[in-house]
Amino acid sequence: MSELPQEGAPTGKTAVQGQGRPMLPLCRKVCYAIGGSPYQMTGSALGFFLQIFLLDVAQLKPFHVSLILFLGQAWDAVTDPAIGFLVSRSPRRKLGKLIPWIAFSMPFGVTFYCMLWFVPFGTTRLWQKCLWYLVMYCCFQTCKTCYHVPYSSLTMFLGGSQRDRDSATAYRMGVEVFSTLVGSGIQGQIVGRYHASMTQICATFNGTLQNHTSAGLTDTLENTRGAYTIASVVLGSLYILSCLVLVFGVKEQPGPLGPLEKAKIPFFRSLRVILAHRSYTHLLCAFILASLAFQVAQGIFAFYCTHASGMAGRFQHLVLIMLVTASLSIPVWQCMLVRFGKKTVLVGLSIIIPALIVITQVTHNFPVFVVMVIMAGCSLGVLYLLPWSMLPDAVDDFRLKNPKCLNLEAFFYSFYVFFNKFAGGLALGISTMSLHFAGYKAGDCTHNPSVILTLKILMAPVPIILLLASMVTFYFYPINEERRRQMKVEMEAVEQGRRENANSG
C-alpha cells in the first residue's frame, strides 16, 4: 500500500488508485483534543469536590446528597440515549451535523455549572437547597450530554486513516488528562486552604465544637463558599475558550460507512441492534466496571485525606501529582499500545491496586502518599486511553457487519458517555450512602470509628474488586490486533468500491 499523502498535497491520484486518504493534520488533532477539555475539567472538579462541597460547605445531610446524586444520574439515564438518538436524527447543516450541538449547548452548560457551586442564602430552607442542587445538577448534566455525545462521536469523522484516528484519540486523551489536572488543580488550589482552615479550627477547639457553631468557623465557611464560586467562574471561562477552539478548528469529514446524514432506523430498533452487537456490549461492561472502580476511589479521596489519613490541606497537592503523572504517562501507554497491541496495555490498570492498599495502611506520611499517587496516576492514564481507543474499533466492526444501519455513531457514543457518567454518579451515591449509614455528620470535628472504617473500605477493597472484574472482562474482549487488521482491509475494500462506482457513474 502506498504512503499516504500529507495534508494539502494533491489527492486526486490517491482517490483514483484507492490507496488511502490524506493524513490528518496535527492542527486538527490538537483542536479536536482541546474540545474535550470542558467535559474533563468539570467532571474532575465534580468528582473530587462535589461530595465534600455538598456535605461540608452546603451543609446538606448525607441522605439528601445521595438522593441528589441518584436522581441526577437517573435523569442522565434518560438524556444520554435520548440526546444520542436526536443527534443521529439531526440533518447536516452549514457547520455540520455534530458541531452545532456542541456550539449551542455551551453557554447553557457554563451557566448551570456555575450555579451548581453557588450556595443559596442562609435563610433558605433545607428542602429548597436540595431542590436547587438537584435542578442545577440535572440541567448541567443535560447540557454536558448535548456537548459530549456529539463531540465524542466526532472521532469517527475527523478524516484520515485508522492510525490517524488512534493518534487523534491519543492526543485527545492527553489533553483530557491535562484538563482533569487543570480542573482539579484550579479547584483544589482555590478551595483547599479553606478546607484546611476549617480542620485547624476544629483542632483548636480540640473536638469540643461538635454540633455548635463558632464565629471563626462561620467566617471560614463563608470564605470557602466564595472560593467555590470563584473556581466555578474560572473553569467556566476555560469551558467557553475550549469550545471555541473546537468549533473553529475542526471540520466534519463524512466517510463511506458514515455519511453523516439522518438516521432512518427507529429509536427502539436502533437500541436493540446496538446492544445486540457483542463487541460493543462486552466493551461497555468492562468500561463501566473500571470507571466505577476509579471513581469510587476518586470521589472518596478528599474525604479520606481530610478525615482518616491526616492529609487535610494536602490532598489537593496529591491530586495534582496523580494527574500530572497520568498526563505524562499517556504518550508512554500510546507507544506501548501501538507496539504491543491494545489488550496488552490492559495490565497497566493493575498498578493502582498496591497503591490503594498502602494508602489505607499508612497515615501522616506525605512522601509515601506521593509515591502511591504516582503509581495511581500511571494506572489512571490507561483508563483514559484504552477504553476510548477501543470504542472506534467496536463501531467499525458493527458498521462492517451491519452495512444497512448507517449514522448510528452518536448512539454508540451516547451509551458510552452515559455509562461513564452513570459510574461516576453511582460511585458518589454508594460512598455518600455508606457514610450516611456509618453515622457521618457534617461539621463534626471528630468521627466515630465506623466512619473511618467505611472510608478505608471505600478507598481500597471496593475499587480493587471492581477493577479485577473489569480486567477479566477486558481480557475476553473479542477484537484483537488480528481482527483490527482484517477490519482495515475490509474498510479499504468498501471505500475502493465506492470510488469505482463513482468513477463509473
Structural features, described:
- The structure is a single chain.
- With 505 residues, the protein is mainly α.
- Helices cover 75% and strands 0% of the residues.
- The chain has 17 helices and no strands.
- The chain has helices at 12-17, 26-34, 37-57, 62-88, 99-116, 126-153, 162-204, 215-249, 267-275, 278-307, 315-340, 352-361, 366-401, 409-438, 449-459, 461-475, 481-504.
- Helix 3 (37-57) packs across helix 10 (278-307).
- It is globular and about 75 Å long.
- Mean pLDDT is 79; it is low at 1-20 and 206-214.
Low-confidence stretches: 1-20, 206-214
Task: Give the class from helix and strand content and strand pairing.
Answer: mainly alpha
Oligomeric state of shown chains: single chain
Total DSSP E strands:
0
Radius of gyration: 24 Å
Q: How would you characterize the largest beta sheet?
A: none
Descriptive labels:
single chain; 75% helix; mainly alpha; disordered N terminus; 505 residues; globular
Write a brief structural summary:
The chain has 505 residues and is mainly alpha-helical. The chain is built from 17 helices and no strands.
What are the SSEs and their pairings?
Elements: H1 12-17, H2 26-34, H3 37-57, H4 62-88, H5 99-116, H6 126-153, H7 162-204, H8 215-249, H9 267-275, H10 278-307, H11 315-340, H12 352-361, H13 366-401, H14 409-438, H15 449-459, H16 461-475, H17 481-504
Helix pairs in contact: 2-7, 2-8, 3-7, 3-8, 3-10, 4-6, 4-14, 5-6, 5-8, 6-14, 7-8, 7-11, 7-13, 10-13, 10-14, 10-15, 10-16, 11-13, 12-13, 12-16, 13-17, 14-15
